[in-house]
Inverse folding.
């Protein structure tokens, strides 16, 4: 590696250091060791190969010096050819060892990336819904990408660099001192001139880089919002394209100006260090040449000293920045561990119970619940805020109790924000209750495995979310082993089969991001088809027909009536016409059940349900 290359590396690591100087703990090191333990054999071989590369690196300049001495001394051609042959063999050995070192580096680094990414991904999947409601998706994805890659560099680059550079530095220094301690001392005097500019300019470039990153992040966020299907629609309806363009162009121009300034700083830096590099070589050739003319130093030693100079400056500069590299890697590890340290609020039971066969009852017994505070489910860095919102812990459900017998339909109605969807979220255990219990078939849901819960409870949510995947893949989420015949049957019962058959690729048609290639009603019917395919004994419908027109709603209601036959259903609806046939209607207000009974009974009571009914059907016949 040339001195200029090392200087660039020095400046880059200085920029990294300026970005984050947090200390790291022994606990972090122990956890890193735990991740490294499966790779310890390869790491040992990797370090050994690094030592061998260092030895070979120092051998080449010494052999070159001997060739010069042989030529000047008039040695036989055989001697010169032998030395040249040895240099060639050393070069081949260095090339081979470098390939082995790179293979080991890639294998260890990529293996570590796999372990870290898998650990974070699996851990995040266990987090409660509240975690995803608060966390910025981009910040979380960054932990799986940039931070994991930063942690990987600790093994693939820093580890080998510290070992090989230490050995190279020691051997090069000893070799130079043995040749001429005077020249060695003079070259070391120039080292601060070589390193300090990298430190100073690195800090300035780091500040510019942070400013550019902030502008880029803002532009990325703006593009992500404006280029999504709902965002683009909103801009077209209410946005001001000229102002949008001007604001975007202003930030893009600032990034351009920063890029020009950074490029000029880097060029000045390169020119300055090229001069320093030339000066160092001038010292070697000047002082060494004078000593050689006076007989105090052989001509070959002067050449060897000049070649060894890069072997001395390069590891010295790299080791001077090793702490920076280690710190950068440790910061990445800590940011990964920060996510892993967030404890899931919903934990798997130590000994899971099984559910009874057949239709299941649903019971809430004196349930009180408050959504968790931010510090229990999130990180300020993932929300991209200075401090977490300290609100939370306020009860939204108060001693809620009801029971749905096997095969019954229980409807939840009431004002928006009354707690209906919260009750629905407790059944599949998206959250755990604070007080009381939620039971399926008489078994507390906290005693059931997540797999058992998934097979027992099917849910259609309000937004009808679909993945950017095929219709087939979106349906198979509910039942991975379903046949095409079963898929078409579910689509037919959701009154969607004719539409899907009319699509160019049928079941293999891509639904688009969040299903936006389908209409709102089509998306909702597809999610209903998914829950029909699951054939769960308990079904939750949270405003399942909210986005359907009257014709589609009638068709889907017929399909749902067929699908819900013999199953326990919890139905949330604002349109009271959809829940008239429910066995029991529960009126929820302010997190409490204030009324309970059949449609006829509640209308006759003249309470809150009757008030809601009158407001929806004012002027219509009863």
């Amino acid at each position: 590696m040339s001195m200029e290359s090392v200087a660039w590396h020095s400046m880059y690591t200085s920029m990294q250091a300026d970005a984050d100087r947090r200390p790291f703990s022994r606990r972090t090191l122990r956890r890193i060791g735990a991740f490294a333990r499966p790779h310890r054999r390869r790491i040992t071989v990797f370090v050994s190969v690094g030592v061998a590369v260092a030895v070979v690196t120092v051998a080449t300049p010494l052999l070159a010096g001997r060739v010069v001495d042989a030529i000047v001394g008039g040695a036989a051609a055989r001697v010169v050819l032998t030395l040249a042959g040895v240099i060639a063999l050393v070069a081949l050995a260095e090339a081979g060892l470098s390939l082995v070192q790179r293979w080991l580096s890639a294998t260890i680094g990529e293996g570590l990336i796999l372990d870290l990414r898998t650990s974070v991904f699996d851990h995040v999947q266990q987090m409660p819904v509240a975690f995803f409601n608060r966390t910025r998706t981009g910040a979380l994805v960054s932990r799986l990408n940039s931070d994991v890659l930063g942690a990987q560099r600790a093994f693939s680059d820093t580890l080998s660099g510290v070992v090989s550079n230490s050995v190279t530095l020691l051997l090069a220094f000893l070799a130079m001192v043995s040749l001429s301690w005077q020249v060695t001392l003079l070259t070391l005097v120039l080292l601060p001139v070589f390193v300090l500019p990298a430190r100073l300019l690195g800090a300035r470039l780091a500040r510019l880089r942070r400013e550019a990153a902030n502008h880029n992040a803002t532009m990325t966020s703006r593009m992500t919002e404006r280029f999504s299907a709902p965002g683009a629609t909103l801009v077209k309806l209410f946005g001001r394209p000229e102002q949008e363009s001007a604001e975007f162009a202003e930030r893009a121009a600032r990034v351009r100006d920063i890029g020009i300034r950074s490029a000029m700083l880097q060029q000045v830096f390169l020119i300055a260090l090229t001069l320093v590099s030339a000066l160092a070589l001038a010292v070697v050739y000047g002082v060494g040449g004078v000593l050689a003319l006076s007989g105090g130093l052989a001509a070959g030693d002067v050449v060897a000293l000049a070649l060894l100079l890069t072997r001395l400056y390069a590891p010295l500069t790299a080791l001077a920045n090793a702490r920076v590299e280690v710190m950068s890697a440790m910061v990445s590890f800590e940011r990964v561990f920060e996510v892993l340290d967030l404890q899931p609020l919903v934990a798997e039971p130590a000994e899971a119970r099984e559910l009874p066969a057949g239709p299941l009852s649903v019971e809430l017994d004196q349930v009180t619940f408050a959504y968790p505070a931010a510090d229990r489910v999130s990180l300020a860095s993932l929300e991209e805020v200075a401090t977490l919102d300290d609100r939370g812990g306020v009860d939204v459900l108060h001693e809620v109790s009801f029971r749905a017998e096997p095969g019954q339909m229980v409807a939840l109605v009431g004002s928006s924000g009354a707690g209906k969807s919260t009750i629905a979220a407790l059944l599949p255990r998206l959250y755990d209750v604070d007080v009381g219990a939620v039971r399926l078939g008489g078994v507390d849901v906290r005693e059931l495995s997540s797999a058992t819960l998934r097979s027992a409870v099917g849910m259609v949510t309000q937004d009808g979310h679909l993945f950017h995947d095929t219709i087939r893949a979106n349906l198979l989420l509910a039942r991975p082993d379903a046949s095409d015949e079963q898929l078409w049957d579910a689509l037919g019962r959701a009154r969607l089969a004719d539409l899907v058959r009319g699509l160019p690729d049928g079941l293999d048609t891509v639904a688009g991001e969040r299903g936006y290639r389908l209409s709102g009603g089509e998306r909702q019917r597809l999610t209903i088809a998914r829950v029909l395919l699951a054939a769960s004994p308990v079904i939750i419908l949270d405003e399942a027909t909210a986005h359907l027109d009257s014709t589609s709603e009638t068709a889907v209601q017929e399909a749902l009536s067929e699908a819900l036959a013999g199953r326990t259903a919890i139905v949330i609806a604002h349109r009271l016409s959809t829940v008239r046939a429910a066995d029991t209607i529960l009126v929820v207000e302010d997190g409490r059940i204030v009324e309970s009974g059949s449609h006829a009974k509640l209308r006759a009571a003249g309470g809150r349900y009757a008030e809601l009914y009158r407001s929806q059907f004012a002027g219509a016949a009863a």
Notes: The mean pLDDT is 79. The first strand starts at residue 362 and ends at 370. DSSP finds 23 helices and ten strands in the chain. The domain at 362-377+394-616 is CATH 3.40.50.300 (Rossmann fold).
